[in-house]
Each structure stands twice: as structure tokens, then as C-alpha cells.
Fold this protein.
Amino acid sequence: MAIRFRTLLSSSSGNCILLQTHDTNLLIDCGFKSQKACRAALAEAVGDLANIDGVVVTHNHGDHISYSSLKVLEKEGVPVYAYRKSAHQMALRHFKGYGFRQLIVNFFENAPFSVGDFTVEPVALPHHPGMDSFGFVIRYSKDGRDYKILTAADFSDGEALTDHLLDADLIYIESNHDLELLKMNFNYNSYYHMNNPATAKLLAEILPKRKTPPKAVVLGHLSAQRNKPHIAIKEVQKAFYAVDTKIDFPLTAAPHYEASEELRLL
């Protein structure tokens, strides 16, 4: 049975990743700006929103989880998986005085947990001060075959990802901004994100050490103001050229505001 992967949003303005098997629909983040946009995007992706088995939240910045999304998830009975130590922070940032008494919240800590067919392992990543942030290793086993997906956005150092980059079948990784475009449109918060050269260097250092190439690498969380897909991809190509290694895997950049093409792991 295939695993299907696509991004529904991927930028500094909103983020949502969809992972599907025949029996499970899992979202990583749900950062929509309005209830209407949230409901429309999720309905187009999965049909009945009640079919969503859970939303795993990387951290509490508004482009990853929002009041509007939480309202929709509460109404549809979709469970939210949030880091236990930052639950109070979520309430302060996003509840806006609304009780969310019917919202289903399951807390994770540092151990793997299950959502439907998937096992989700949190990987703590450095990001903004005072903001706990996580990447996730997502595993799925079927008929003796094991699959591993790595998602990592909103971080400033990739050391914790090294081992997972060596064997993940599909990699979604932040490549937030271009250094020259940052100079033209400066934002101090960009320093808490991976820039194009940093992501490219990380991939070029680790991926050539693999026994087999990944099925796909998706560059994500590109800033709409300080990056372009072709710039991010070119930076990775340049880094691989510098270490005299060919890119032997599909390399794409997730679109900012609409769903990406679907990728399948068979």
C-alpha cells in the first residue's frame, strides 16, 4: 500500500503537510489564516474532515497552528497532538479567550507515539528563543516493508537530523531564505531559520554517504519575500557540484500557497 505525501501550504505565511495511507490521514501542522481557507483546503485534500486522524503540531507560531484552524478541528472532532510543555503557550497565543472545551488534545513528549498507521518520533530542533520546535520522523510498516519520512521546518541547525537524513525514504526540509534577498528585504527572524546555503550544505554533506538515494527531497517553508524555488534548488545543485556528487534523487520545492503534487512511496 502506498504512502502519499503532499504539502497543502508551505511558507512563512502558512504550513500544512498531509500524509496518507489507505486507512490514515495525518497532518503535520495546520496553519491556515481563516476557517474558510482551512475547511476548503482540507475538504479538497481528504473529503470529509472527520476522516483526518490527527494534526501533529511542530510548534506554536501562527503559520503552523492558528485560532482559525483550531476552531475547525474542534468542530470536526479532529485530535491535535501538541508538545506537553508548550500547551499553555498554545492557549496564550491562539485560544483568544475562547474555551476550546471540545477540542481533543493529546500531548506528546520525547517518545514516539502512534497516529493511525503511523508512528511519529519527535526530534527537538533549535528555533526561536522560548519556542519549543520539533521535526518528526514518521514511520509506516506494511507487509514486511518499512518506510521512513522526515519532516523538518523552522530550525536553525540541522545536527539533530544527521542520522535520519542517512536513511529517510522521503525528506521534507526547510530552505527558508536566500542571503541576497534577505539583504534586500531584511527580517531578523530569518536568523532562526535555515538559509539556502545551510540547507544545501547539510544535504550535500550527508546524502552522498547513503547506501541508496532517497525517493524524494522536498525543500519547504520558503519565504515568499526572501526566496524563490529555483534559487533554493540551484543552491543545492551548487553544493553537490562542489563535492563532485550527482543529485540522484528527485528534488523539488514546495509551493507557497497551494497544494503540491502528490509523491508516493510504494
Observations:
- The chain has seven helices and 14 strands.
